[in-house]
Specification:
Length: 134
């Protein structure tokens, strides 16, 4: 097999310390691995989520004013509480007010809203609707 069972999502940030604090507060857990001033990683169940600070010579490649197609999707138990937690985590570490979340939408798979971290990366907060098997 070409690939192992290991996969993860990473975000780049020119302000690693700020995103480290934001996600520590939002996820309510310390990073599971850390290389000071370069990389932090959080373990969420079987999922690994890393944040790195690009080297100066690579910074332009990773700089983007928009989230683009990539999103970090977090399944939550209570959508309203999750939106509030993102806003609280943002206010706790950022000097500017948080970007407002999107309106809550309802789809066949559940309810969701978009929120944003201090670097503008999109977070999809998803509250699943589970149906019991008949």
């Amino acid at each position: 097999m070409l690939y192992t069972d290991y996969a993860m999502l990473t975000l780049s940030s020119s302000n690693l310390a700020r995103l480290r604090q934001f996600y520590w507060k939002l996820l309510d857990q310390a990073p599971s691995f850390e290389f000071p001033n370069t990389y932090v990683e959080f373990q969420i169940g079987l999922f690994r989520f890393g944040i790195f600070q690009p080297k100066p010579e690579n910074a332009e490649e990773f700089a983007s004013p928009h989230s683009g197609a990539m999103s970090l999707c977090l399944e939550v138990d209570n959508l309203e509480q999750a939106i509030a937690a993102v806003q609280e985590a943002y206010r706790a570490i950022a000097a500017t007010p948080p970007r407002p979340p999107s309106p809550i939408i309802t789809a066949s798979h559940g309810r969701e809203a978009y929120a944003y971290d201090p670097d503008g990366n999109r977070l999809i907060l998803h509250e699943a609707v589970y149906q019991a098997a008949s």
